[in-house]
Amino acid sequence: MSKKGRPTNDKRDKRFEIRLSQSTFETLEECSKQLNISKSEVVHKGILLVEKEIKK
Fold this sequence. Notes:
Elements: H1 22-35, H2 39-54
Helix pairs in contact: 1-2
């Protein structure tokens, strides 16, 4: 059986589930559509932004 998805050096094998308010979920969906990326990728980018902010 072949592997699915894009090959990456950053293996994403950890799962994390969150509950969002309706308005936060709608914001997440809008960001995803505007950037043409998945909701997961929006979250990944958000984590990197917070990391940059705390390292200032």
